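re: ur question from yesterday

yeah so i grabbed the chain u mentioned. its 432 aa long if i counted rite. heres the sequnce exactly as i have it in my notes:
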Amino acid sequence: MSNTVNGTQEVASSTEQGTRSTQATRWEKRDSTWVISLFGTAVGAGILFLPINAGMGGFWPLVVMALLVGPMTYLAHRGLARFVLSSKKPNADITEVVEEHFGVGAGKLITLLYFFAIYPIVLIYGVGITNTVESFMVNQLQMVAPPRWLLSIVLIMGMMSVMLAGEKLMLKVTEVLVYPLIVILAGISLYLIPDWTGAALEQVPSAKDFATTLWLTIPVLVFSFNHSPAISSFSLAQRRDHGDQAVEKADAILKRTSMVLLGFVMFFVFSCVMSLTPAQLAEAKAQNIAVLSYLANQHASPLISYFGPLVAFVAIVSSFFGHYLGAREGLKGMIVQNMRKSGKEPNAKKVEMFIIAFFILTLWGTAVANPSILGMIESLGGPIIATILFIMPMYAIKRVPAMAKYQGHISNAFVALMGTIAISAILYQLVG
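ran it thru and got these structure tokens back, copy pasting raw so excuse formatting
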């Protein structure tokens, strides 16, 4: 009887594993939804400035960047997802995995850094969404905007309500937002083709200028394609849905995400750069305006002046969702670690309520204050994000037994090198 029961359990277990293996190799609708969600996290407000920052050095460095950014994006995020999935605990998020592999002290440090790298970006999006909607109401709709304190809290509560409703609604809303974003990006890229000139092609920098441009622009590419804040939640969802096949499924989704990002974003960048001269790009940078705003001023195009704010709105909201996931995870990790150190067992409901109140109040306060220093805060978080995304998973492959199976691949050296280059460039720009 016992042997029969054991045999039945083994067959059931084998059947379940076989089903999960089939699911891991078969592409499903929810996989496409995750691709769209991760795309939305990456394509934040940064894309509106990417053509200016990446294109000022001319066309040829941009070609090399396009060849590098695909492998950089895929391999770095794959490494981080594999790191999260290397835990023995089925529901461990990134903060718990760091503690498990590197000890309590390192876990606290990384959790602290992780939170303070992502949290300022969440605040930036609170300010950005308020400014975008306020500007659209005044300039395009010719309306009198409501008081800033009222407009900002309505917008912030709108974004937060989607997050509080859960993962399914967040993915659904992101999907609804990001598909139009992809269509508009492609549409604007095609719309600009008749304005392409050879000005960018004629600028051939010296070898030194070429290398310097490439070096200083790599961080811009890293953060314009960065979807690391959502990787921990994404990885846990794959483990929940696919069990032992989670790594295989995560790899497949991240590869598609990188391909979609590379195709649509770099086409948009090339199209903008080809339709403007290096002098115009420098002028746009000096004016500190998004590339679509500059193009609208140059062309007096109602199409671009209408779609520009729409792209900014969709990009900010979709990216807010992914960054909020990461910041919430970091704050929760810090609270739980400190409570357990004090000998208290955290009450999950109370912790969640505190986190919600903290984000609503700080987002609202920052949006009302409308500070101009947030771009600087974002750049200060750059080295931390690059370290967590590029360096930490590669270090773990060397040091953590659970990740030893990933050793010996040339891709590991490539990711570590690109991460080091990005960090050195950011630090150079901060010091300079």
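noticed a couple things. Confidence is low (pLDDT under 50) at residues 10-14. also The CA atoms of residues 229 and 326 lie 4 Å apart.
anyway ttyl
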